[in-house]
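seq as requested:
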Amino acid sequence: MPKLTISKELEAKITKAIEKLAWEAPYTNLDKMYAVSGYLSDFDLDANGLTAKDIFDLATGNYSIKKHYEVGRYYISTDMIFKVLAIENDKVKISVYHEECDVYINDGVLHFQSDFDKESRPATSSKVKLFNRVEQFHAQGRKLNQFREGDVVRDSVGNLLYYRNTHASYDASLTLVCTKEKRGDL
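struct tokens:
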């Protein structure tokens, strides 16, 4: 039977309820259940999608704590970088870049307690920078560093240039400003 997933706030209340037991440890499961059931409200349970039937699992520690994601923040998991777009009850809407496959997905979903969720952690600044570059290319209908001759690009100094195949060795330092297809001068 899978563990329950609860918020950090509920976990803090459960811990506090058990710590407030009037007698000395060791506590029996019945002692813990009594303490937790007297300390939690229906609102606490409802907020986590739980019922009174779940109190025994809460009292005995048969739960895991839901990771806290923030909208607009970047995270990594395995070889993927993702940005949180929205948070719903049991899932997180994300945009994802899979580095190994060079694939960008703008409408992905992360489910709590999935392997992807369990391995996620905040992204480093270099990964955030890479993800933003991928998004910028995706907005132009291109894959990462997919330049075409005639694109308008900006070099690392800030100069605007028309991309030529001779610029290929500088691809990582160039920024795509406008694709050849969207230029108004052709």
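The radius of gyration is 25 Å.
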